[in-house]
Design goal:
single chain; 127 residues; globular
């Protein structure tokens, strides 16, 4: 299985998925024109990965902002990860947020309440 790398832009996050190492990073802003089209390659890659999971899968979400349509797609990604976790993929999600960003903290807590995966809130100190 090949790595998935989508370079970020002012409207889309950087996505790096390394199935060999079981690592996924989503970082930046997520306000794409069409969220479903943007996240489809990642959802498809996770679907393929689910058939051959590593014993641990580390997920880092480092978003500074995302819109409503992105939040649905992120939930779809988390649901794929939930299935991978149930299949023995040992998924752990690290939700990064800036120390003063209550909205991103609450968004992470909302996902944490919905998804049955170990979720860790990671505070980033502002520079």
């Amino acid at each position: 299985m090949e790595n998935l790398v989508i370079e970020g832009s002012p409207k889309t996050p950087t996505i790096k998925f390394n199935p060999e190492e079981g690592k996924l990073l989503i970082q930046g802003r997520s306000i794409p024109e069409n969220s479903i089209d943007f996240y489809k390659p990642l959802v498809d890659a996770l679907e393929e990965y689910a058939g051959n999971v590593k014993e641990s899968t580390k997920v880092d979400i480092v978003l500074e902002y995302f819109n409503t349509s992105s939040s649905k797609c992120i939930l779809d990604v988390f649901k794929k990860l939930e299935r991978i976790n149930e299949a023995g993929g040992g998924v752990a999600i690290n939700w990064h947020y800036e120390e003063d960003d209550e909205d991103m903290l609450e968004a992470g807590e909302d996902y944490q309440a919905i998804i049955n995966i170990p979720f860790k809130m990671v505070e980033i100190e502002e520079e």
